[in-house]
Design a protein that fits this description.
The complex is a heterodimer of chains A (about 170) and B (about 425). By secondary structure, chain A is α+β, with helices and mostly antiparallel strands. Chain A is built from 5 helices and 4 strands; from the N terminus they run βαβαααβαβ. In chain A, α3 runs antiparallel to α4. The longest helix of chain A is centred in the middle third of the chain and has 27 residues. Chain B has one domain. Chain B is about 75% helix and about 0% strand. Chain B is globular and about 65 Å long. Classes of the chains: A alpha+beta (about 170), B mainly alpha (about 425).
C-alpha cells in the first residue's frame, strides 16, 4: 500500500450542491483530492476535468486476443491436430467457427475488463479499503482535500461557505 | 426557425433526380431483349419495397418510443412522422404490382404462373398462401392498417401542437394507438415481407427472413434519419439537436448493423450446416452468380460500420457518422437488390423455358446469363447505371415527399410532454 494521507472532507446532501461546490473549488484553485458519491453524478466528470477512461481500449485488445485465440485454436485443432469430418463439411469450416469465436471474444473482453478495472481501482479479494464516511454509500456526497494541498482551516471555511456538514479530518 | 421552407435549389435537385429516375425506369423497360420486362418490374419492386419499408420502420419506431416512454427523440419526431407518410406512394405502386398478378403485367412471382400451380408440387402445396388474392387483399388490409396508424399518430401530434395542454390528452391517445400498432406491425410486417420479397423465390423459405429484411429496413431508416438531421442542421434548422441526439442515433446504426449481421449469419449458417438442397439453392445461386454483391454486402453493411462506429467519438462527429450512414443506406439498398433480383430472374428463366415461345424470351437470355455466368451482366448480376438511376430517382422522390411533409408542420412539436427531456438530452 502507498503511504497514508490525511484528508479533510465535508458532506453534501444534494448533488446540485455538490456540483456547485466542486465548481467553486475549481474556480478558487483548490486542488481536490477526490469526490465521493453513491451514484454517478451527471456532469461531474467534465467539471473535475477527468480524462476519458481507457478501459474500452483494453477491452478491444482483450476481445481481439479472444477472437484470435478461438479462431486460430480451432483452425489448428481441426486441420492439424485432430481433423474430423463433421457432416461432410471441410476441415476448415469457417462459418462453424464464427459463433465460438464470437463467444470467446466476449468472454475474454468481459473478464479482462473486470480484472483490469479491479486492479486499476485497487480492488480485489481480501482487500479492504477504508471508507471515508458510511453515508457516502447511501445518500451523501463528499469532497475531500488532501491536507498537503489545502490547509484544514481554508478547507473548513470553504465547506462552511458551500453548505457542507460533518466536516472532518481523516487519515486514509 | 421552426418552419421549414424548401429552397428552390433543393426542389430543382429533387425534381431533376425524379426525372432521371423516371427516365432510367422507362429505359429499363425497353433496354435489351427482355420479354417479360423483368428488369423494369424488379427495379420498381426493389425500390418500392425498400422505401416503403423505411417508411414503415419510421412509424414502427415512433410507436416503440412512445410505448417505451422515451423522450430523447421528441425534437426530431417530425422527421419520422414525415418519413412514415411516404407509405402511401409505396402502397399505390404495390397495388399496381398486385393488380399485375391478375392482369399479367409482369411475371415476377413464380407462384402466379398457372402452369406451375398445376404441375409444381411445392408451389401447388403453398398456393393457399401464395396466390394473387392473398397478395392483393391481404396486402391491402395490412397497408391500410399501417397507413391509418401513420395518419392517426401524425394528426394527433399536429393537434397537440395546436391545442395541447397539461392534460396531455393527445399523448395518451397516441400511446393507445402506438401500443395497439406494435403487435399488428410485428405480424403484418412478416406477412408483407413473405409475400412481397421472400415469395420471389417461391420454392424456398426461411423463418429468419422476415427479421433479416426488417432489420435491413430499420438500419436504412436510422441512416436516412441521421443524414436528414445533418442536412437540416447545416441549413440552420434544429439548433437544439446536438451531437447527443446524433450519438444515440449512431448507437442505433451501430447496434442494428450488428443485429442485421447476426440475422444474416444465423440464416446462412443454419442453412449451410443443415445442407438441405431445397434451402441451400438460395445461397448457392447468389454465391456463384452474384459473388461481388454477396460478399460485398457483408463488408459494406457489417465490417465497415462495425469498425468505424465502434469508437465513442465517431458516433458523435457528424462527418464520420454521416459518412457511415450514407454508405450503409446504399448498402442496404444493395442488400434488397440481392434479395429480389435473383429470384425474379430465375422465375423469368423458368417461364421462358416452358410455353412462352421457347428460348427466344429475353428472360431466358438473362436467366441463362445468370445460370452460366462467365461474366457479370449489368442490371442483372450487378446494379447497372439504370438501377443506380432508378435508385436516385426514388430517393429524390422520397426526400421530396418527406421535405414537403416537413414544411407543412412546425419542426419541433411544441406541446409534446417529452420536449423538455429531449432538449436536455445528455448521454
Amino acid at each position: 500500500m502507498g503511504k497514508t494521507k490525511e484528508v479533510v472532507y465535508g458532506l453534501y446532501s444534494d448533488e446540485q450542491d455538490l456540483l456547485k461546490a466542486v465548481k467553486a473549488a475549481k474556480s478558487g484553485h483548490m486542488e481536490i483530492h477526490d469526490v465521493f458519491s453513491p451514484f454517478p453524478v451527471h456532469g461531474l466528470d467534465p467539471i473535475l476535468g477527468l480524462e476519458e477512461s481507457r478501459l474500452h481500449i483494453a477491452g478491444f485488445i482483450y476481445g481481439m486476443i479472444g477472437a484470435l485465440t478461438a479462431f486460430l485454436g480451432m483452425t489448428w485443432i481441426f486441420t492439424k491436430d485432430w481433423p474430423i469430418i463433421f457432416g461432410g463439411k471441410p476441415y476448415w469450416s469457417v462459418p462453424a467457427f464464427i459463433p465460438i469465436t464470437f463467444e470467446t471474444m466476449v468472454l475474454f473482453a468481459s473478464i479482462g475488463m473486470v480484472v483490469t478495472f479491479y486492479i486499476v481501482c485497487g480492488l480485489g479479494p481480501g482487500v479492504t479499503n477504508e471508507t471515508l464516511h458510511d453515508r457516502l454509500t447511501d445518500d451523501k456526497f463528499a469532497i475531500a482535500f488532501n491536507t498537503h494541498d489545502v490547509t484544514v482551516d481554508s478547507a473548513k471555511s470553504f465547506f462552511s461557505q458551500t453548505g457542507a456538514s460533518d466536516v472532518n479530518v481523516k487519515v486514509l | 426557425m421552426n418552419e421549414y421552407v424548401m429552397p428552390t435549389s433543393q426542389r430543382t435537385l429533387f425534381l431533376g433526380g425524379m426525372v432521371l429516375g423516371i427516365v432510367c425506369l422507362a429505359l429499363s423497360w425497353f433496354v435489351g431483349a427482355d420479354e417479360f420486362h423483368t428488369r423494369f418490374w424488379t427495379n420498381l419492386l426493389h425500390n418500392t419495397v425498400f422505401f416503403t419499408g423505411i417508411s414503415f420502420m419510421a412509424l414502427f419506431f415512433i410507436c416503440v418510443c412512445i410505448t417505451a416512454w422515451a423522450g430523447w427523440y421528441t425534437l426530431f419526431k417530425r422527421i419520422w412522422e414525415a418519413l412514415s407518410m411516404f407509405m402511401i406512394i409505396g402502397f399505390v405502386i404495390m397495388v399496381i404490382i398486385g393488380l399485375g398478378n391478375y392482369f399479367g403485367f409482369h411475371h415476377l412471382y413464380h407462384w402466379n404462373d398457372a402452369d406451375s400451380i398445376l404441375n409444381d408440387k411445392i408451389i401447388n402445396h403453398k398456393s393457399k398462401f401464395l396466390n394473387k388474392n392473398v397478395y392483393f387483399i391481404g396486402g391491402l388490409i395490412v397497408m391500410a392498417g399501417w397507413y391509418i396508424c401513420a395518419m392517426k399518430l401524425r394528426s394527433l401530434s399536429l393537434a397537440e401542437d395546436r391545442n395541447g395542454d397539461d392534460s396531455y390528452e393527445h399523448h395518451h391517445k397516441a400511446r393507445v394507438w402506438a401500443a395497439g400498432f406494435l403487435p399488428f406491425a410485428g405480424f403484418s410486417s412478416a406477412f408483407i415481407i413473405w409475400q412481397w420479397i421472400m415469395s420471389l423465390d417461391a420454392h424456398w423459405y426461411s423463418t429468419m427472413f422476415a427479421w433479416y429484411s426488417g432489420a435491413s429496413w430499420f438500419v436504412s431508416m436510422i441512416a436516412l434519419t441521421i443524414l436528414i438531421i445533418i442536412y437540416m442542421k447545416s441549413r440552420g434548422y434544429y439548433e437544439q439537436i446536438t451531437n447527443e441526439h446524433v450519438h444515440d442515433l449512431g448507437k442505433f446504426l451501430f447496434a442494428f448493423s450488428i443485429f442485421w449481421t447476426y440475422l444474416w449469419f444465423s440464416q446462412f449458417m443454419l442453412i449451410w450446416y443443415a445442407n438441405v438442397g431445397e434451402e441451400t439453392v438460395y445461397f448457392r445461386h447468389r454465391m456463384d452468380n452474384y459473388p461481388v454483391l454477396f460478399y460485398g454486402n457483408l463488408l459494406i453493411n457489417f465490417v465497415m460500420p462495425f469498425f468505424v462506429l465502434m469508437r465513442n467519438d465517431t458516433k458523435r462527429k457528424f462527418g464520420s457518422v454521416g459518412f457511415v450512414a450514407a454508405i450503409v443506406l446504399f448498402g442496404h439498398w444493395w442488400d434488397y437488390f440481392l434479395m429480389i433480383k435473383p429470384g425474379a430472374l430465375h422465375t423469368a428463366h423458368e417461364l421462358a423455358g416452358h410455353g412462352h415461345g421457347g428460348d427466344h424470351g429475353a428472360g431466358a437470355h438473362a436467366g441463362e446469363a445468370v445460370e452460366h455466368a462467365a461474366h457479370f451482366v449489368s442490371g442483372f448480376t450487378l446494379p447497372g447505371l439504370l438501377e443506380i438511376g432508378v435508385f436516385i430517382g426514388f430517393l429524390s422522390g422520397f426526400l421530396y415527399f418527406v421535405y414537403v411533409k416537413l414544411s407543412q408542420a412546425p419542426l419541433v412539436p411544441e406541446n409534446d410532454p417529452y420536449l423538455a427531456e429531449s432538449i436536455h438530452h445528455h448521454v
